[in-house]
Amino acid sequence: MASKQLRILVPVKRVIDYQIRPRVNKLGTAIETTGVKFSINPFDDIAVEEAVRIREKNKSLVESIHAVSIGPSKAQDILRNCLAKGADTSTLIDSKDARIEPLAVAKVLKEVVEKQNANLVIMGKQAIDDDCNNTGQMLAGMLKWPQATNAAKVEFLESGRVEVTREVDGGEEVISASLPLVITTDLRLNIPRYVGLQNLMKAKKKPMEKLALKDFSDVDFEPRLKVNSIEEPQPRAPGVKVNSVDELIEKLKDAKVI
Fold first, then answer.
1. What is the rounded CA–CA span in Å between residue 121 and residue 7?
2. Spatial distance between the Cα atoms of 257 and 110, rounded to a whole number of angstroms
3. What is the pTM of this model?
4. Domain limits of the chain?
């Protein structure tokens, strides 16, 4: 394969587990996190899996896989999980529970990319806690790299280019780009593997660099958005059964839907 060695960077985020229903705290100012289970962001888990699969398919192609997370010290758990799945090294950037917005995250990741000399970033298209879906795009813009977002399939061609299939309205869109490249992952890209206890124990021996926000002095971490309040969504009204199409039409007219 006529392509350069891959140095893959995989950013991951610690979020409330996707199986948990978030609850608003008593003050209505934030989501309750006390006693709540956290895990790796599902889209990021897919990104880690894809990086490992790329290595498994092309063992001579991948030089390294580095996982990085910006979050509290407890985010070490998800980084250990990444190492257990096949990442070689990792970096924890301790945010001390501060809320870091996507622009600041992208700026930090740009510095990490440069430090690791990475030429491929694979990351989740969005985090399920804020659903911003813009960190990957901003990172690509800052690096001046091509980007392939919402990837449902990734293939490395003999020419050295990367072909990415994206699901769009009405079908699929296939794009190709050369390295360096930023890819953001969608749900249908793969199914992440289960990590066994033995691999988790082995992961403890792999390197984990620990940094702090102060190590990125050129990045402004001051939030640009202020959350005034958070409310539970209104419960859905019960449905109504109708006995005929005519009755359905009348109901829709009464609701001013048609």
1. 9
2. 48
3. 0.85
4. 6-232
